[in-house]
């Protein structure tokens, strides 16, 4: 059932959320770290899959425990438990070419013979675009210490790599119809995969989605005036969103419509997107007077130049299916949002930063 584990979301670890936002910044490093023209094999494995090269003894001991507790902890804001990564442990002797092209790899070396204890991040070792982390330690206890000290950076690195791969695909193949309408009517751009179709357009509002008999992914994009800082509070954002959803996004039955799930609090954080003030919100949506629901992720971004707030609300409906990878796909789409007047916003943002510095 959709709401079976809804209350359990309140008990999820908040740490993973902060590193998701940190990954926005690390993703730029990941995408620019390899400028070589050297030919690589293409990565293999499913999205969200990670190979952990580790001895059986270490995997069954404290090193394996801390790896599982961190890298396989529940993904935030999903209606059922799903790990942030699907871990596959591989003994050192079995780490052959078949595994070396996997998209995400953690290599461990725990031995008294280790010369330098460290955590090392390396892109594209055996394939492209690949993310690898090497952790070397003299003892299991030191491994746990090293990993714990770097856990946020490690999670951010791999999440950024997953997002960057999707972004690379969208940059190459995207639905030009949606792209052009956003460019013309909203003076922004966003890249979504081919197959997305516009479901409805209204003043300062557009809804585009991709549907199959089994899943539905969609983005609802809209704007509203920026009148004060209260325009970014979660209550204000949800009130605006639910009003638009009720008006423009009907459900399958008469009198049904999409809305925000109120029985759990959304997870909200503040960050900068393309240099602009922004908030990210994660939570669940539902259909009033029906039984549909699923996860969402949204960003609200300040367009200082035009004194408006731009919101990209991405959602997934996939009953009886895992939703982690679907919501990550939508997340990569909404994070591709760019303002056509970004140059003007950059000038205003720099001016604001200078004023804050002088006052400080």
UniProtKB/TrEMBL annotation:
Taxonomic lineage: Bacteria, Pseudomonadati, Bacteroidota, Bacteroidia, Marinilabiliales
Protein name: DUF4837 family protein
Organism of origin: Maribellus comscasis
Entry-linked InterPro entries: DUF4837 (IPR032286)
């Amino acid at each position: 059932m959709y709401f079976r584990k809804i209350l359990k979301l309140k008990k999820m670890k908040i740490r993973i959320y902060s590193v998701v936002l940190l990954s926005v910044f690390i993703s730029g490093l990941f995408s620019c770290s390899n400028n070589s023209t050297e030919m690589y094999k293409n990565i293999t494995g499913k999205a969200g899959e990670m190979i952990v090269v580790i001895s059986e003894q270490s995997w069954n001991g404290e090193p394996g425990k801390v790896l599982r507790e961190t890298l396989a902890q529940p993904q935030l804001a999903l209606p059922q438990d799903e790990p942030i990564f699907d871990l596959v442990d591989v003994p050192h002797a079995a780490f052959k070419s078949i595994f070396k092209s996997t998209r995400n790899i953690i290599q461990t070396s725990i031995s008294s013979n280790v010369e330098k204890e460290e955590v090392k991040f390396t892109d594209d070792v055996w394939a492209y675009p690949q993310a690898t982390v090497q952790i070397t330690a003299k003892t299991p206890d030191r491994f746990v210490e090293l990993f714990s000290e770097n856990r946020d950076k490690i999670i951010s690195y791999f999440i950024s790599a997953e997002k960057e791969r999707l972004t690379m695909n969208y940059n190459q193949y995207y639905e030009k119809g949606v792209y052009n309408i956003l460019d013309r009517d909203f003076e922004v751009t966003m890249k979504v995969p081919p197959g997305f179709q516009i479901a409805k357009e209204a003043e300062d509002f557009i809804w585009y989605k991709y549907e199959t008999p089994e899943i539905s992914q969609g983005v609802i994009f809209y704007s509203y005036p920026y009148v004060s800082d209260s325009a970014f509070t979660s209550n204000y954002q949800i009130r605006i969103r639910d009003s638009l959803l009720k008006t423009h996004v009907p459900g399958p039955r008469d009198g049904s419509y999409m809305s925000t799930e109120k029985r759990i609090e959304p997870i909200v954080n503040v960050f900068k997107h393309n240099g602009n003030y922004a908030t990210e919100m994660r939570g669940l949506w539902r259909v009033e007077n029906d039984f549909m629901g699923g996860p969402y992720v949204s960003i609200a971004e300040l367009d200082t130049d035009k004194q408006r707030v731009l919101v990209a609300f991405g959602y997934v409906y996939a009953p009886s299916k895992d939703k982690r990878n679907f919501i990550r796909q939508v997340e990569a789409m909404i994070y591709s949002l760019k303002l056509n007047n970004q140059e003007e916003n950059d000038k205003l943002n720099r001016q604001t930063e200078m004023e804050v510095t002088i006052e400080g």
